From TrEMBL:
One of its GO terms (molecular function) is kinase activity. Its EC number is 2.7.6.5. This is Putative GTP pyrophosphokinase. Residues 62-185 form the RelA/SpoT domain. InterPro entries: GTP_Pyrophosphokinase, NT_sf, RelA_SpoT. GO terms for biological process: guanosine tetraphosphate metabolic process. It comes from Glaciibacter psychrotolerans. Keywords: Kinase, Transferase.
Length: 268
């Protein structure tokens, strides 16, 4: 009787295959976690734009750490006992970055995400109110979101970074400099980076004040036009006439009786 090929697989190889499958499943869950959060963010962005003709979200991007980067960090943190241990101790495997125009927008986006009933806020680090020593500013939140698979449900952690355009520009430059010098950045450049961070912070505050002034002037002069009214007229006339009388579409013309397809009463 011939033995199956599997019976000749060394035990250590079987373990390697098992760990690999577990790790691939973990990566897939984190990918789905990003998908879930991106859907929520995009829905909030579109709804906010519809209701307020303005959105606090300028740009959104996501990233999933590479297996190599994950394993290196796991070794540094000593999170190598199991795949579950790795997932429990590493909170930035899945990441989303949201860029806003103003500082106030960063907190508005945070509040909208935190209010989602199926999103649990695990940790918040406010580097806007308390910047890092190198000048870095951003609002970080670790959230947990359920991922529903065919047979199981997993709570997946996703790191969400919320920052202004100025903060994002500074962080991008800082990352490039640290990468170029492999972390050993000359002190002169570090000093210039801190100065640039302060400049970016002042710019954010100036833009925030300008934004507030514009809103105040609009309110005082009553010059704000609700784009929702304008959007109503973007619809074809044939559709609009089903819902609004002719006088509403063209104030210069008196209202006319509608047919039985309309809602206005007909004079008899």
């Amino acid at each position: 009787m011939h033995e199956s090929a599997d019976s000749h697989v060394p035990p250590d190889l079987e373990e390697l295959v098992r760990v690999r499958q577990e790790f691939e499943g973990l990566m897939l869950r984190y990918k789905f976690g990003i998908d879930e959060m991106m859907t929520k963010i995009n829905i909030l962005k579109e709804e906010f734009a519809h209701l307020h003709a303005y959105t606090p979200i300028e740009h959104v991007e996501s990233r999933l750490k590479s297996p190599e980067s994950i394993l290196k960090k796991a070794v540094r943190k000593g999170a190598t006992e199991s795949i579950d241990d790795l997932a429990a101790r590493l909170h930035d495997i899945a990441g989303i970055r949201i860029t806003c125009s103003f500082i106030s927008d960063t907190y508005r986006v945070y509040e909208m995400l935190a209010a989602q009933h199926d999103v649990s806020v695990v940790e918040v680090r406010d580097y806007i109110k308390a910047p890092k020593a190198n000048g870095y500013q951003s609002l970080h939140m670790i959230v947990e979101v359920p991922v529903f698979l065919s047979a199981t449900t997993h709570l997946v952690k996703v790191e969400v970074q919320i920052r202004t355009i100025a903060m994002d520009f500074w962080a991008s430059l800082e990352h490039k400099i640290y990468y170029k010098y492999d972390g050993a950045v000359p002190q002169a450049l570090l000093d210039k980076l801190r100065d640039a961070a302060e400049t970016a912070s002042r710019l954010d505050l100036t833009m925030e004040h300008l934004h507030d002034d514009v809103l105040a002037l609009d309110a005082e002069n009553d010059t704000f036009d609700d784009p929702r009214q304008e959007r109503r007229y973007d619809l074809p006339d044939s559709i609009l006439r089903l819902f609004w009388p002719e006088s509403a579409l063209n104030p210069s013309r008196p209202a006319e009786p509608m047919t039985d397809a309309g809602w206005a009463p007909v004079q008899i």
